[in-house]
Amino acid sequence: MGARRAYTENWQLIQATDERRSELVVQELMKSYLWYRMMVGNIIKIHDTLEVPMYLSPPATGKWFDKGDLLPDHQTTAAKMAYWTNRYCVFPTGYDILEMWQKEGDPSQLFDLEELRSVELAWAIRRTLASAIFNGVGGKQPDGLATILEKSAPSAQTATVGGVAKATEAWFRNKYVQLTSSFGTIAAGTTLPAGFLSALSLRDQCTIGTLMPSDMITTRDAFLMFRRGMLETQTVYSLISERKVAEFGHRNFMFDGSYLAWDPNCPADTIYCLHLDDQFDPERTGDPRDKAKMDRDLEDIGVKKPLQLSGPLAIAMHPKINMRKIAPRNPYRQMAQTEWTVTSMNLVCNRLSDQGVAGSDNGSRWSTW
Fold this sequence. Notes:
The protein is α/β, with parallel strands linked by helices. Helices cover 24% and strands 23% of the residues. The strands form 5 sheets. The chain has a 6-stranded mixed sheet with strand order 7-17-11-8-10-9.
């Protein structure tokens, strides 16, 4: 019989549990509505810095000419450049060596302990990344929606997003709507709640040409106001066509053609109106390769170019720093073993003027009937 080895020396066993840990992490991450929606199509790979050209105006139209006329000297395309970088986060997980010794020789207990640590790690990753999408403040943290989409009139916006200063670049400012009365207040000349009218106004402002916003994300309290409003106005409540659509993590339905859902990480009294999935008809180009723009296969989740994204808002990740593990180490004079998981994430937006946010004048209008 071979000599029994300590668990921490059995690298084959440790490697066998890594795959299960990864699966648990993915399952936990999918429980956030916005994170799930962006993970299934809006991922872009950044090695160091991503340069995104911003076209401010379309090229000049053609020139009508006759004999003796001169050809145009140059194009009139106006463009700016935005810059996006990765942000990194590390998650520690550890084991008490004395506890490991006590369970030595009992694989079931060792796997139970490893599974517990994996679930704890998954919780930590989900809570941190899902919250950062909304609440990241920039710097070492991602640029969250609260930073990118300012709750102020376009002329008063001052944030710098992707290296572009909103204060001096009017074309890179988000839309904003403010609710100044309680959600259920019936405005003069209409039979609709004020919350509905403000949400419709926000959605209309975020509709560019024929591209309509795909998602409206808010808090649970505001979501319940929308549900009550639909019941009060006798509007059909269940407007989804597939059960899978309702399984993003929270109950949701359609509001004027956009998914309306709530996310636990959304700031209070806030509604985000986002282009996460621009509707694109590949048949119109006549080129079968264009069908890849609608690809939702999780096996090929990453894209290389901004123009390949399903929408102008995406999660940026480093292709080589995604749930990457640092080997376990024993701190000096401690009966513990610690390892770290490092991942990358940031938000990228190449059409900020398409996105919008709604707030209120007292911080509670959207959740008060």
